[in-house]
Amino acid sequence: MAANPMYQFNVYRIGPEIKINNIDISFTNASLFMVISSLAILIIFNLGTKRSIIPNKIQLLAELSYSFISKMISDTAGSKAKPYFSFIFSLFMFVLFCNMFGMIPYSFTVTSHIIVTFVLAAFIFVGVTIIGFIKHGLGYLKLFVPSGVPMVLLPLIVVIEIISYLSRPISLSVRLFANMMAGHTMMKVFGGFVVSLGIVGGWLPLGFSVALTGLEILVAFLQAYVFAILTCIYLNDALNLHH
Amino acid sequence: MLKKIIFQFLALSLIFTYSAQSAESGGMPQLNPEFWISQIFWLVLTFGLLFIILSKFILPKISNNLETRKSQILENIETADKQREETEKKVKEFDKIINDTKVEAKNFFNGERQKVLDDINNKRLSLEKDIEKEIIKAEEEIDQLKKTSQEKITKIAIETSSDLVKQLIGEDINKSSLSAIVEDLSKKEVEKHNGI
Q: Is A60 part of a structural domain of the chain?
């Protein structure tokens, strides 16, 4: 029968067990794909730094992604967000490459693990909050008090705003993790159908599988984009306090 | 056909329940905290290194490239504009030269024509003078001839009349009285002739 569709998310140790102060930091398949993604990004973008007036294909790719993310940041967070460009660029590329490497059969999707996405999201959340307090001091708390709200509703609104603010890292991390996990599970399930239904009935799930692969590639890009653009929006809140 | 579809659905549901059960038994590997610390460690390491290398070495180069390209393009456009302006200036100069030359040629042509006309006029004038002189001369000659012819005619008339008289009468008569009569007649004739 079909293999366990959740088996693909298993993390296992590669090589020896590494322990520091009784904490296990062994090199795993997850670590391997993080390293592969980072190296791929570095290689591609390093090849794209040639100094030529008419760019070749890789240079064009690098420069197009540069201007794409640069435009995205200036559109959503304004010109004040320029110092954070390289962080958002790295974030987008890292998430995108992890998602895309996950699309290769028998590979591992780093971003399908809640702990990874949560650490990224929590880092963004903490960073944005710190930036907000540095830029506006205690005035950053005005973020929770929208202007033009009747006094009667204010206590309720403030509570809702605080909850929505605190849930940002959770929504951000769960969105990416759940999308990646669900997509890969679906693909695995349909792949299992192809095998179990055989040559007679396997064509339908095979078609689904092919379609899902296309969809998943779209989702892989889209989720990286959403992750980056939400980071920009949070950054915008911290940099340009509108209330 | 319908049977086949029903069979497929049955098989699908069977597999679904199976996979669901197996997932339940295995659980979500994501929620197993065994490798959490390791994942966090490697994430921080790889992402940190990626961020540092990208922000310190690669992105500045790319932005530099974009900037230089932009500035180069602007520079090229500027030089192109300058050259175009220069060309326009040159074209204007060229036009001016052509216009000047045209005017000069016209002036030259006009001057030459005037000269030729003057020359022709002068020549005509001198020619007319010459002609007038000739005419005067001819008239004088005619006048002379008129006078001399009158005398000759008178002479001939006298001789003829004397001969006629001699033959008619048979003797010579006084020539002077004859000539007086002839002159008188001829004068009358001439006056008559001239009067008409």
A: yes
Q: Which two tokens stand for residue B7?
A: 């069979």
ipTM for the predicted complex: 0.89
Please state, as a whole number, how many other Cβ atoms lie within 10 Å of the Cβ of residue B175.
Answer: 11
What is the tens place of the pLDDT at every residue in A93-143?
999 999 999 999 889 999 999 999 999 999 999 999 999 999 888 888 888
Beta partners for A227?
none
| Among A112, A87, A118, residue whose Cα is nearest residue A99 | A112
| Partner residue facing B50 (CB), from A41, A66, A120 | A41
- Check if A151 contacts B (Cβ < 8 Å): no
- Inside any domain, residue A74: yes
Sequence-distant (≥ 6) Cβ neighbours of residue A226 within 8 angstroms:
A175, A176
The values of phi and psi at residue A117, to 5°, are -65, -35
Residue of B nearest to A182 (CA): B28
Do the domain assignments include residue A2? no
For an interface test with B, which of A20, A64, A113, A195 has the most B Cβ atoms less than 10 Å from its Cβ? A113
CA gap B119, B127 in Å, rounded: 12
Write out the DSSP string of A29-72.
HHHHHHHHHHHHHHHHHHHTT---SS--HHHHHHHHHHHHHHHH
Task: Report if pTM > 0.80.
Answer: no
Q: Which one of B4, B32, B36, B38 would you mutate to disrupt binding with A, by most A Cβ within 10 Å of its Cβ? A: B38
Number of domains in chain A: 1
Q: Give whole-number Cα distances, B186 to B74, B149, B160, in Å.
A: 117, 12, 14
Partner-chain residue, chosen from B19, B31, B41, that has the shortest CB–CB distance to A2: B19
In a domain, A138, yes or no: yes
The DSSP string of A87-143 is HHHHHHHHHHHHHHHHTSTT---GGGSHHHHHHHHHHHHHHHHHHHHHHHGGGGGGG
Domain hosting residue A145, numbered range: 7-239
In this predicted model, what pLDDT tens digit does every residue of A139-197 receive, in sequence order?
A: 888 888 888 888 888 889 999 999 999 999 999 999 999 999 999 999 988 888 888 88
Side-chain-facing half-sphere of B114: CA atoms under 13 Å: 6
CB-based contacts of B44, cutoff 8 Å, min separation 6: A119
* Pairwise CB contact (< 8 Å): A30 & B38: yes
* CB distance B47 to A74 below 8 Å: no
B58 to A45: CB separation less than 8 angstroms, yes or no: yes
For residue B133, report the phi and psi dihedrals to the nearest 5 degrees: -55, -45
